[in-house]
Specification:
The protein is an alpha/beta fold and 227 residues long. The protein has one domain (43-225): Vaccinia Virus protein VP39 (Rossmann fold, 3-Layer(aba) Sandwich). It is built from 11 helices and 9 strands. It has helices spanning 3-7, 9-17, 22-32, 35-42, 44-58, 76-83, 96-103, 115-118, 138-144, 154-162, 193-200; strands at residues 66-70, 88-92, 108-111, 127-137, 165-176, 179-180, 183-184, 204-205, 222-225. The strands form 2 sheets. The chain has a 7-stranded mixed beta sheet with strand order 3-2-1-4-5-9-8. A two-stranded antiparallel ribbon has the order 6-7. Helix 5 crosses helix 6. The relative contact order is 0.12.
Amino acid sequence: MSILQILNWPRHQKALTRISNHREFEVYVNRANPRKFLSYRAASSRKKAEFLSVLDAINVDPHNLHFLDLGPGYGDSLDVCQEKGASSVSFTEIDPFFFAHNRLKKFTTPYRLNHLLKLHLLPARAFNLIWCKGSVVADHAILSERWPIRIWRFTDWLARLETLTAPGAHVVICPHWRNDGGRRRVQNVRDSIFSRIMFSHGYGVLPEIPGHNQQPDYPLTYHKTMP
């Protein structure tokens, strides 16, 4: 996503906040032509299948669960959980198009916030299933642990995230790993600082899931069942 697109977010957000139904939203999308939103829409069927494959891997049925997605994009996971009878479906989002699209689904509880900085605004001990794919960058998390000044620390974020979980909740985190021309900047991801932090907090790595784990961006998915 370009800096110019992000700079236009406040203008789009102001307009999208006034929209009250999907018909109006589609008119605005056709006029604005948001490339990222449209590319995620085109991949929706594949992303639904991907999310279902992860649910199978952790043996979780969303029925009657309280679900939270940190950065849902087009909201495929939200749709799946609603279709499967989740008790509640919540999300955090900062992209104005994704936020408006998922807000207008009506069955969701939306939080317009940056989850990296404002998890404390979400209800504690409220969620049985938390899903986070791509909205944590592993390279940034590693750097945060090395910064001499505590601006943002991944370990603090992880501790705060776990305060949102109900007893027995499942947390699934699939971070994005930076790469240059297809070559990942951190080659040995299993022995990285990121993985060592996850392991020390009780997370394991799921077996590779075709269609979900992709090289070089998404090689590992971490999972923990809370006590």
